[in-house]
Give the backbone structure.
Amino acid sequence: MTVNATGAVTGARSISLDQPLLRSADFGDLRLPNRVVMAPATRARAADPGLVPTELHVAYYAQRAAAGLIVTEGTWVSEQAIGFVHVPGIYSEEQAVGWRRVTDVVHALGGRIVLQLWHTGAASHPDHHGGRPPAGPSAVDPREKSFTARGFQDTVTPREMTAADIGATVAEYAAAAENARRAGFDGVEIHAVGPFLLPQFLNRRLNRRTDAYGGDRARRRRLLLEVLDAVCAPWQGRRAGVRLSPYWTSGLFTPDEETLADYDELVAELDERPVAYLHLRGRDLVEPGATPDLDAFARYRRLFHGPLIANNGFDRESGNAAVEAGVADAVGFATHFIANPDLVARFALGHGLAQGDRATFYSGGAEGYVDYPAMEWRG
């Protein structure tokens, strides 16, 4: 293999290095060397009682430091937020110290890393809370499943959050963002995807409140916007991203036109706020081998003028096409990064991708976590 004067790799897999995904980009106050984003993926490797990141986490993220931006797995903002076993937190000093080891190594390798802040709300289970029901926007069972020490369990009818609960939750997000700053992260991302707390408040079927946090679109999105203000406070400039999933389908979540209109207004309002980037999860792919629906992202691209990350079902070709078309400024890859720690290099060199072992996605130690090999070049 050689590189010629035009920057093209020559050999059995000749390919130009001037792919849209490999171009640098500004995201808020972050300068990304490429547009291949490591999307958050729950891996459940924090097995100690304190949910502290370990040396395995250090190795895992270090292996993937070539990503233009790493977004960590969702991380608990408090004990009340927990809804999945063995997921690390960011609410204790020990957790912040553990994460500092991760950020130090990623930065030493030239990487950029933000911490995703997560709260499951009503999608949790009493097993995570000493037998007590979790809290949500209203006393409505979201009809989801929570991963507990006994395996996946059906959710239950939650306790409706009081005004005091909501105020405490916003304060927990603020404290978690401050802990992330002290732990050396380059910023934070608000987890507002799937069936969890913040999307629950946005959902008219789950949020039946009649106070300041429910009753119409503006009030249903109030909690998310208060959380955004809270997590931005510890940072100077634009260091907080938001991840949304308008097209999520499960339980009481249906991407009908009224739901999409709710998100239209939310995204337009986010455009007026100091958001570093918007991270959108698109529609699920209907058939194997299908390409992502770029129109699903274009709907919100028209409403948000800051950096936009598209995610869900992309490969190298469709990712390059999304950036080239201007539908997204970067593309997030989760499953591909699990089995391909050198994903950026594989994209650059046109190399094939390894497949991950799904049996180890949410359990195990080093196996299926830090033992995926780098590519072998065969010219």
